[in-house]
Amino acid sequence: MSSEALVVCHECDLLLREVPLEAGGVARCSRCGCNLYRNMPEGLERSLVFSLTAAALFVIANAFPIVSMNSQGLTSSTTLLGMVQVLYDDEMFSVALLVFITAFLMPALEIAAFIYLLLPLRLGRTVRGIPLVFRLLHTAQPWGMIEVFMLGILVTISKLAAMASVVPGIALWSFVLLMIAIAAASAGFDSRSFWARVDSLR
Question: Which residues span the membrane (predicted)?
Fold first, then answer.
């Protein structure tokens, strides 16, 4: 039995024979039930499309105000980076850093890594630094917490609505769509299919 026909479960280390799957099929470990690999013929292409969509939404979400608040004739609005600046100016340095990393930096790195890995592959090419960017992608994914940021924004809006008129901005809806696009890009990205495609081009 060749080593190419074997797969090791990353949860329980059981050694299994690799079997072909029909489109959409999932191979699971016979011992622990963990997903081993999937067969998604168009998964990488869908991941690229959602990554490019996420990149456009990310720009919109950070270029326009998230919400506008009107109270006693005074109107104020801010962007995500504007919120980080306000927190920094108020000497809430750790909170400002946390918001910047989880809601801006890590999602940006995740989107950029997806595009860097998948776009050349779609064009039939490989690029330098694939292992490094692949590790960066998996490092950034757990730290991208746009959904937590959105939950905090919604709670804040609900509390401010009792004191002032709060109007959601285009950035708020962009963040909602961005959250969905990143999740869809991650769901379509299969590491096994990716490395198989890379090896075929080398």
Answer: 48-67, 93-119, 140-164, 170-189
